[in-house]
Design a protein that fits this description.
By secondary structure, the chain is an alpha/beta fold. It has a single domain, classed as Nitrilase/N-carbamoyl-D-aminoacid amidohydrolase (4-Layer Sandwich), CATH 3.60.110.10. The strands form 2 sheets. The chain has a 6-stranded mixed beta sheet. The longest helix has 18 residues. The relative contact order is 0.15.
């Protein structure tokens, strides 16, 4: 029996001054999309509190102040912020994929959070390699987050931005039989060529994986762009590059993509198309040759401290009366 999932890809501007104000936009968008019947709601890359656009146009010597502001406004997982999203998911019965700047003590990470319709946070993953300018901002993730998770709408995998140019990262999710792939890009970056590249990448992954792709990119207003840099030449680097889209396993757009301005893109996913595509080409099944080509995937977390304790440990000594 065929089933249909209504997906919503959100393309809106964050608030560059406040996590709380951006979170208010997130919660409002969840309410709006759920009210319009969405089962799955996807937000842009590190939308909370905002993508570090400053790192793309400012030299390292000028990044200290905005970088520290990002530290101050970043999200801890779990926290009141994640609980508020979880509560909204449970209230509406929707699945939400939210991009955040995650703060873990002294480091920031590009994190993707997947909340199930019950409100359960079923996955927190970190971008495995920040791209180019992003390496001044975020630490690296690990293979533990390259997971496909069962949700109310089906099996979901997620990658951020140029992780899609790492074919082994994509293959790691493909081998776990993702039905819906969620992608997130910053938007308002690089220029029109970025949007063209995103479209090619999203449609190709849909074809190769035999899954739906739901991609959300962000948006900056003219005033926000001017607040990041007064240099009109550099401001060109913070325009266009938006390609919020929903793609079928056959590589077709479900609806025309959103490439400019704010809005929520809706599309109905006929999940029968997954089997229709894989019947002819299952790249991790009947079309694979694992005896010739296979993937080694290290799913261990990578702690910075490995403790080997074989003897007695010091115990605190209380103050004697």
């Amino acid at each position: 029996m065929s089933r249909t999932v209504k997906a919503a890809a959100v393309q809106i501007a964050p608030d560059l001054t406040s996590r709380d104000k951006t979170m208010a936009r997130v919660l409002d968008a969840i309410d709006e999309a759920a009210g319009n019947g969405a089962d799955l709601i996807v937000f842009p890359e590190t939308f909370v509190p905002f993508y570090p656009y400053f790192s793309f146009v400012l030299p390292p010597s000028q990044q200290g102040k905005p970088h520290l502001h990002l530290y101050d406004q970043a999200v801890t997982v779990p926290s009141d912020d994640t609980r508020r999203v979880a509560q909204r998911c449970a209230h509406h019965g929707v699945v939400v994929v939210l991009g955040v700047n995650e703060r873990d003590h002294g480091s920031l990470y590009n994190a993707q959070l997947i909340f199930d319709g019950s409100g359960t946070l079923v996955l927190k993953r970190r971008k495995i390699t920040p791209t180019y300018h992003e390496r001044m901002v975020w630490g690296q993730g690990d293979g533990a987050g390259l997971q496909v998770v069962e949700t109310r709408v089906g099996r979901i995998g997620a990658l951020a931005c140029w992780e899609h140019y790492n074919p082994l990262a994509r293959y790691a999710l493909m081998t776990q039989h993702e039905e819906i792939h969620v992608a997130q890009f910053p938007g308002s970056l690089v220029g029109p060529i970025f949007a063209e590249q995103i479209e090619v990448t999203m449609r190709h992954h849909a074809l190769e994986s035999g899954c739906f792709v739901v991609n959300a990119t962000g948006w900056l207003t003219d005033n926000q762009i001017e607040s990041i840099t007064p240099d009109t030449t550099l401001q060109k680097s913070l325009r266009d590059g938006c390609m919020t889209c929903i793609v079928t396993p056959e590589g077709r757009h479900v609806v025309p993509p959103l490439t400019s301005g704010e809005g929520i893109l809706y599309g109905d996913l006929d999940m029968a198309l997954v089997t229709k595509r894989k019947r002819m080409m299952d790249s991790v099944g009947h079309y694979a040759r694992p005896e010739l080509l296979s993937l080694h995937h290290n799913t261990d977390l990578t702690p910075t401290r490995h403790v080997s304790a074989t003897g007695p440990q010091f115990q605190p000594i209380p103050l004697e009366d």
